[in-house]
Input
Amino acid sequence: RFADIQQAPPIEVFHVMKAFADSTHEKKVNLSVGAYRTDEAKPWVLPVVRKVEAELAADMTLNHEYLPILGLESFSTAAAKMLLGASHPAIAEGRMTAVQVLSGTGGLRIAAEFLHRILKYNTFYFSTPTWGNHRLIFTQAGFTDVRQYRYWDGKTKGLDFDGMIEDLQNAPENSVVILHSCAHNPTGVDPTQDQWKKIADVVEERKLFPLFDSAYQGFASGDLDKDAWAVRLFAERGFEMIATQSFSKNFGLYNERVGNLMIVVKDPSVIVPMRSQITLLVRGSYSNPPSHGARIVSRVLNDEALFGEWKECIKIMSGRIIEMRKGLQERLEKLGTPGTWNHITAQIGMFSFTGLSAEQSKYLAEKYHIYLLSSGRINMCGLTTGNIDYVAEAINDAVCN
Ligand code: PMP
Output
């Protein structure tokens, strides 16, 4: 009954965003939500996106008819090629299929439902820590055996590789393992290529099912191929695997919900029945995906000139983040802030896992109106040349205090 409904816990990142929005402090800084900001601390509509949007608006042949249940094929095929590499044998051999989904989150949800209901998996692993939504998505899709593998080592402020391997070695067969394909959220720490090879060995030995969450391709290093390295390694080694792709960050299309679900299998004959099952999962949840964002991405990925313009945008975004990393580390070191700060530039992607405690983040919010998550994760894009001194001095104060 309605009267019996318990209050659910708030989603922290939206809670922190609201605190920022409500603050009237003139120097307030938002380091919470994972969204790109320009050096003026403004959201950025990529110029190539604006251009394609104008073309779409002027194109009188387009309409608002439903897309097919599995979405726009020109989009999903191009997206899969971007992740696997256009010449990947799985594509030529017909062992890959891709489906347009509701961004990264919706892709994970359909993947989880497919794995649980159709393939009967019930155990899933995620890294400690991970993006806050992984647990929720998989449990809501029906998984009941929730497990974690070690990832972050607070002492070295890097990867706990031995812990990760040990936990995966002890995983029961047929566990699904969620892996971040690059720019791990929230730590910004990725395995090295050698470490990825060892992870692949364990996944193979233990008969685990790899699921790659790809939310930052191109955004991490500015190089689409480099950021897809781990996914391609697994695909080349012949794993059956799933990858979900988000175009929120690398295209700045957050609210358009543009995503792709890509599945690589060993036997091409399973693809038709598999797609028919995914069709039912989608039909019973949202029926079919929206078209605007997928049309934009499809046009850009399928046109050499637009693709080139987009790659420049990615470089601008990732480059600005790298500059902010350097700037923050330099300032903290100059201020003599206790502790080591080289992890800020060693980490990649949108976030830095600063090592700041929940108390210190609270202190930053209360005294300086600088808003970050209680885990100490900061969105590097929230830093600008205009506020970086203020933030560094505030962090110095929080650490010394
Ligand atoms: N996975 C990870 C690791 C993420 O950080 C995000 C975005 N915060 C997503 C998936 C999905 O985001 P979206 O649903 O906007 O594509």
